[in-house]
## 1
Amino acid sequence: MSKLSIIMYHYVRELEETRYPEIKGLRKSEFRSQLKFIKENFNVVTMQQVLAALVGSEDLPTNAALLTFDDGYLDHFVNVFPVLFDEKLQGSFYPPLAPIKDRKLLDVNRVHFVLASAPVEKILETIKKFVDFWQERGSVSPFEKYYSEWAKPNRFDSAEIIFIKRMLQTALPESLREDLSQILFSKYVSSDEKAFASELYMDTHQAKMMVECGMHFGSHGDTHQWLNRLTLDVLHREIDNSLLFLKAIGAPCKAGEWTLSYPYGGWNDDVVCAVRQRGCALAVTTHVAQADLHRDDALLLPRFDTNDFPKTF
């Protein structure tokens, strides 16, 4: 068989017991229940089995499923790893380097926790004031132009939420969106980003332990940037630094062995070429579909989201 259902996870935590119960995540009880559903309806495979199937040395079982976990959260060490270990299942984990090594808070997480901590109307009000200020100085377009272009709902978020995410992740010039996201985070979440990052992400020792216990670790870049929006020099540095990290924790990093999850699902031909040249064996996107290892490019495999499967069973 060549069909593979790749499932993507992010936050897994008892939401009501945290300071941020509005964060969009999966409760531990829901993860256990969903894992029970997956075990009863799929055959959970390891990354080694998938890579062997890619080169034709073995077939996947019927209804094969691969579990992937992005962004290197402490949730994965505390709430996911013990469950998978007890169930004798492998997860594939994709942490970016900067949060693990340098305790740098990722832009994407600033956005998540701002949205979990403040009313959407207040966030939009702050963004409008910020954009109006810089628009008067000729640095950015009018607020209304940005809203018209970026306020497009998707299957999980409203138009307003998508607009906020895009303004803080890509629409504004990098220096300005960094300033705006820090203003919002400091106002609504915390003034100490480094301390917050220390609570949010796993550390190097925890990653090493998970590798030693059979979990797969792959690349998610160095600083979790949209790889398809980087210069070639920065793109190569993002990949190379992440491979050094994989080597340091004892994870596969040689040509034909290492795997990648594109941050934000962002890729283009230059990105695929760069990772192919460095020997990436498999890469996952955020395109929603079942993967077919005989049909799909191994560096452009689609994934399902955890929300595509039952949370209670």
Note: Residues 120-136 form the longest helix (17 residues).
## 2
Amino acid sequence: MVKGFFMVMSGMVVINIQQCLLSRDREKIPSSEAILKEFLQRAEEEHREHKDVKYYADRAGLTPKYFAKVILKASGRHPLNLIREYIIADARTMLKSGNYGVEQICNILHFSSRAQFNKYFKDATGISPVRYAKS
């Protein structure tokens, strides 16, 4: 009888340990919304230096493909498009302020050349940075 009681108790202990481990594992896995929130915060702060999805995926501890899938599911938008929005909003603000030339903005936003920045900006907005600044 003692042996049977011990087997039942040890079985309950094993079940309790498994439940604790499972609940801890669930706590460790961030939700899609938490991943999105962290990504948006990081992208807002670091978009000038980091324009690629792989950087943000690495910070989240996910593969770029899975990271993009999670962000797309949570926001309805691909992370590359969200990063681009931060970059373009930043560029627009600097261009409209009149305090920065296009070359300075290229440097601040870490583009390798003015031509690369011009193409990036025009693809996103439909007009060149110089025309945008004058409008």
Note: DSSP finds eight helices and no strands in the chain.
## 3
Amino acid sequence: FNSKSNYATATLRKHLNCLNEIFENAKDNGYITLNPCDNFKISVGQNSQDKDVYTPEQAEKVLAFCKNHRFGLSIDLLLRYGVSRSELLGLKIEDVDFDKKIISIRRGVTMISGKIVLGETKNKYRSRDIAVNDDTLSMIDRKCEFLIHNQDGSMCRPDTWKRRHYNVFMKDMQEFYKGENIPALSPHELRHTRATIW
């Protein structure tokens, strides 16, 4: 924990809870006699930083730029509907009902031990149907299995998507709106923007 003192205290608490459960399980199964997490107090960590958000006017400009950018669908789904990155990368064409204008969130993409894993959503409340507009539907490539995909149509790794799609979009968007002071926010901050606007 001392070596991770640059992490947010809330993150360190989550790690401690996980570690505590592992040791409790080991204790219950007779592998150890004492849980080293008992009575351990976290004395390091950073305060969580406030998230940056777009104003409603800035958000509308970013969404307008999405319509004509090759990676605009990703940003549109994050910013307009508040989906998470994991949910975004797990979306398939079968999840889209073009007639009813609904996208169903049913799975997510995560990295486990360096491997990409397509699984269920983070929790049962994350599975949901989202009403979408025509602008969003018009950006979807109906020929690929995944809505957000690599050049060959395959599922994107989160780090690859961030580097090759997200960062490229943000750079192009800032260049387009040069002088208008629209910052490049993180994917989570786009989601946070939507929650704030709602």
Note: The chain is about 40% helix and 10% strand.
## 4
Amino acid sequence: MSDTPRLLRVGTSPHIGSGKSVDQIMWQVVYALCPAALFAVFAFGWAALLTLLTAVLACSLTEHFISRAGGKPTTVVDGSAVITGILFGLTLPAHFPLWMTALGGVIGMSMTKCLFGGLGYNAFNPALVSRAFLQAAFPVAITSWMPAFSDDRWTSLPKSLLALPFCTPDYEGVTSATPLSLAKFEAEFTGAKELALGLTNGSLGETCSVLLLLGGLYLAARKMLNWRIPAAIFATVFALSAGVHAINPEQYAPPLFMLFSGGLVLGAVFMATDMVASPITHAGSIVYGILICVLVVVIRYWDGMPEGVMYAILFANAVSPHIDHCIKPRVYGTGKKGSARFG
């Protein structure tokens, strides 16, 4: 018999891994986003492609240089910065000045992700922080919209896209008439079919909800997305908006409009489900989704802004640790108060 002592190694759960690395999961999310991103390019032309590429490059290069400056190997290869860049680009109008896009990517990645320690430590979704910064810094530019499917989208670029830094962009040919603004200020509701298929004006990620949902279903089927969060958001938005719409159908948008308009599908499927900034328990995920939904409905119906998905998710990100603290699963073999229970 060997005299070599045997060691019992004890560690925290989970004890059984899924076999999927972080890199594999991140790149699968990138693949799930590609159909919606490609449709946005189809709808808005070269302007959309340049916006998405600028956002991805700004986020990736920021993470790379900060990693190298800190004496650490680059983490760009894990795909998380690419996801942030695509999501950030999808929140922007197609004609948005590229220098503003690059600035937003640098701010979001450096202040939200790299400053807190990188992947796994960010308290907020970096793409939404980038968008929130631009919303505060350049409110006119980010609320002016380029019409989708214009005839010249493959032959010319919007003048504002290539505007020089700190110069006033030329927004010739843009419009502010998005479905949410029409519903908010003119009580005109776009049909659910047009919204779901992306046949409307808006940001790049407000184009085709169907493709975003298919991407989410793909990730949920591969267990790379907590389906309870978007399910809670969609179900609660439908129920609340149906009740409010029934009270005054002429003033308040119907539930299908609320589901498919704006950035709700993009936010619910790909942003609210951020593995780091969302709760870890099943019950907490449902509470988290309901909280986002209530804020979205309140802002869209009664606030001065037509859209509230960004602020709702960022607020829920801040509350997420407290949800985990308040909603804890009972340890097996203990009572409700955590005391040991035997026999």
Note: Residues 187 and 251 are 6 Å apart (CA to CA).
